[in-house]
Amino acid sequence: MKALVVGYGSIGKRHVRILNELGILVGLVSRRILDYKPIFNSIEPAIKSFSPNIIVVANETSKHLETLNLIMEKNYEGIILIEKPLFQSSNITSFDNENIFVGYNLRFHPLLQKLKTEIKNQKIISCSVYVGQYLPTWRPSADYRKTYSASKMLGGGVLRDLSHELDYLQWIFGSWKRLISLGGKFSSLEIESEDSYSLLTETELCPLITIEMNYLDKICQRFMIVNTEDYTYKIDFINGTFQKNSEIQYVKVSRDETYRKQYLAIINKNFDQLCTFEEGLSVIKMVESIERSNEEKGWVYNAE
């Protein structure tokens, strides 16, 4: 099996490494001068001469749509995995291709999967989600001011950067019905994108969800609390804990495990838990609705 990775930033490097560890021959598309083979400076010759089974789009979010169009123009019939977020905007023509998926790999996190199974037949009352990390420490080897996270034009900002939460909440609790938000650039970080957002929403299966996401948290926290009629659950992604009322279990998860499981699902053609193109697009539509709510200072309702 062969995979082609488009883009060689920090996330592209991770995809290349993990795919190699899985024994997959990996080609790379990058205009940078790199000591790597096989490498191509554009997609067209890569598809023609390398014939990949999987293409991973891991360049800047602002280039995802252009890259996908180039791939589709070549009548490529293999699997396409696009890094999250899918696009900057939802204002695009949908692609009629069941082989396009979006890299919301947190769906494969053991804590999240255990929670989804536990609450499946319970009455959900409320949910609270928090995710925050101080942007300057996010990528220690890079100047945070020059990363895509700092640029709204390149697809940065907490809503898109931390959109895993928006995906897995809909994966577990169904589509959002209405929402209201407050967010923006409040700190002294030298960025052009938003550094904080808070959100209140209702979904098909949960009447009350609160979400807070930011680039500010020096502790680095990512957790989720769910209240059902009989139980309170808390999963802590950073500390690896699953709590059900007073009972706590520890689950050891390596940094690469969710990526590896996502690829194994693709290799074995077990697509059920992967984020589809339409689901990825719905996350972008939710992001735009959150931004609209913030601008208009009121509730936004899901028309779909």
Describe this entry's structure for a reader.
- It comes from Bacillus methanolicus PB1.
- This is Oxidoreductase domain-containing protein.
- The protein is an alpha/beta fold and 304 residues long.
- It has two domains: 82 residues, Rossmann fold, CATH 3.40.50.720; 183 residues, Dihydrodipicolinate Reductase, domain 2 (2-Layer Sandwich), CATH 3.30.360.10.
- The chain has eight helices and 16 strands.
- It has a nine-stranded mixed sheet with strand order 14-13-12-11-7-10-9-8-16. A seven-stranded mixed sheet has the order 3-2-1-4-5-6-15, sandwiched between helices.
- A hairpin with a 2-residue loop joins β13 and β14.
- The two termini are 38 Å apart.
Topology of this protein?
Layout: E1 2-6, H1 10-21, E2 25-29, E3 39-40, H2 43-50, E4 54-57, H3 64-73, E5 79-82, E6 100-102, H4 110-118, E7 124-132, H5 158-161, H6 164-173, E8 176-184, E9 196-203, E10 209-214, E11 221-228, E12 232-236, E13 241-244, E14 247-250, H7 257-267, E15 275-276, H8 277-296, E16 300-301
Parallel strand pairs: 1-2, 1-4, 2-3, 4-5, 5-6, 7-10
Antiparallel strand pairs: 6-15, 7-11, 8-9, 8-16, 9-10, 11-12, 12-13, 13-14
